[in-house]
Write a sequence for this structure.
């Protein structure tokens, strides 16, 4: 198995990081480009493993997709022209691919089987298959359509009004995509607003989507047309280096072209609440998605509470926020984040186990973590659980640890940030790879 030994060898972090394209937006750009008729040119696409799985699936459906690095051209006959795939559709490790594609395929004209890797095959799908079934979709699998593999037989759907029991953009997006092919207007209500990239991009592609507070509706039956998409940098990837800059005395790092969609910027609020200096140096309102330049500088850290409406705005950042809290004065309480237990791995269990190995004072609760700081972390060997965000958290921990950290199985980091170690090395560390 591959391992990486990360050792921090700079007194502070200074510089600029250009993080790769946003994972959520990259998936949606390929999906909408494939649903729409004609050409969609995507710039800044994330060439990470998860998004490449999405491309592969639409190619299997007969959509022409050419990729040259981060430039992707999708040329689709539209959904009505898709062909039945000769093999199973493989979503790999990607929950977004699986759940959103279920919503898309439910209203298509084809029959297909969707599979995933070991981790994805354990993750709950009934949060999507139950509302889809009530729209008339045929999605069959064991037990009760909850786990991959699932067989989807596309057909005409009926609009529903759906109150979401969990704040999940994946569920919301799957229902919105299904609603495109449903008779009537589908209305979804969320208790807390989750990331809204699907709503924004659907509007860009010409769908009739209305957003009213926590309610979103989409009218079925419209044909979408291809559209160019500019993908900003992923704030969830930038978060790792933002946390690093906030933890190390004397540091100041800028992030250019980073997504600033307010449904995703919870990390900036938490950094500010904990005492770091966060400056938005420039903000541009690009086609549908705001982005800009952010500077994060060290100014000391203190504990905070992270809960409620803030959680969906930083759900993927919570592993590295837990690390941040180990360096803050006082107690940090993370609650209302039970969703962490059904991510790529149980992130509450994994984060507490790994940070404890370094001597952190952290305890798991049912729906979060409690961290007492500050603690000087030791070096050691951490495992990634095949979870990209756990792997990156381990590497960032090396920047504040008293000795190097060995990361087992770091290859999963390529799921969302293929150039992570190159950027880390430029900014801060020496890395030895074995195996
Ligand atoms: C995503 C939504 C979130 C997030 C995931 C990406 C998306 O999942 O954790 O990494 O692109 O819609 P949930 O919808 O399950 O919260």
């Amino acid at each position: 198995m591959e391992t990486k030994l990360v050792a921090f060898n700079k007194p502070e972090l200074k510089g600029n990081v250009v993080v790769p394209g946003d994972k959520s937006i990259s998936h949606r750009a390929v999906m909408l480009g494939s649903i729409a008729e004609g050409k969609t040119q995507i710039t800044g696409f994330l060439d990470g493993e998860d998004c490449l799985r999405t491309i592969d699936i639409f190619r299997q459906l007969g959509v022409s997709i050419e990729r040259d690095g981060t430039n992707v051209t999708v040329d689709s006959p539209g959904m009505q022209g898709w062909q039945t795939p000769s093999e199973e559709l493989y979503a790999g490790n990607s929950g977004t691919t699986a759940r959103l594609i279920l919503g898309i395929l439910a209203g298509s004209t084809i029959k297909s089987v969707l599979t995933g890797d070991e981790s994805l095959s354990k993750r709950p799908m009934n949060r999507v298959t139950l509302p889809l079934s009530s729209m008339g979709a045929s999605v069959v699998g064991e037990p009760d359509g909850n786990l991959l593999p699932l067989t989807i037989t596309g057909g005409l759907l009926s609009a529903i009004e759906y109150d979401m029991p969990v704040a999940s953009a994946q569920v919301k997006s799957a229902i919105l995509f299904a609603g495109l092919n449903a008779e009537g207007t589908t209305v979804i209500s969320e208790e807390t607003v989750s990331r809204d990239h699907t709503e924004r991009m659907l509007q860009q592609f010409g769908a009739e989507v209305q957003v009213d507070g926590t309610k979103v509706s989409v009218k079925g039956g419209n044909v979408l047309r291809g559209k160019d998409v500019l993908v900003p940098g992923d704030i969830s990837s930038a978060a790792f280096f933002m946390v690093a800059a906030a933890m190390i005395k004397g540091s100041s790092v800028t992030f250019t072209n980073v997504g600033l969609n307010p449904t995703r910027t919870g990390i900036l609020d938490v950094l500010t609440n904990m005492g770091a200096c966060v400056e938005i140096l420039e903000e541009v309102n690009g086609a549908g998605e705001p982005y800009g330049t952010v500077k994060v500088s060290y100014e000391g850290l203190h504990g905070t509470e992270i809960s409620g409406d803030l959680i969906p705005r930083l759900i993927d950042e919570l592993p590295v926020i837990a690390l941040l809290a180990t360096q803050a004065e006082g107690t940090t309480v993370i609650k209302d984040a039970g969703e962490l237990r059904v991510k790529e791995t149980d992130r509450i269990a994994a984060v507490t186990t790994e940070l404890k190995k370094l001597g952190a004072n952290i305890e798991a609760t049912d729906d979060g973590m409690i961290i007492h700081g500050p603690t000087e972390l030791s070096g050691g060997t951490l495992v990634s659980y095949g979870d990209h965000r756990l792997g990156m958290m381990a590497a960032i921990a090396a920047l504040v640890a008293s000795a190097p950290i060995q990361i087992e199985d770091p290859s999963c980091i390529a799921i969302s940030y293929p150039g992570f170690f190159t950027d880390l090395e430029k900014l801060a560390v020496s890395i030895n790879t074995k195996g």
In short: The longest helix spans residues 23-35.
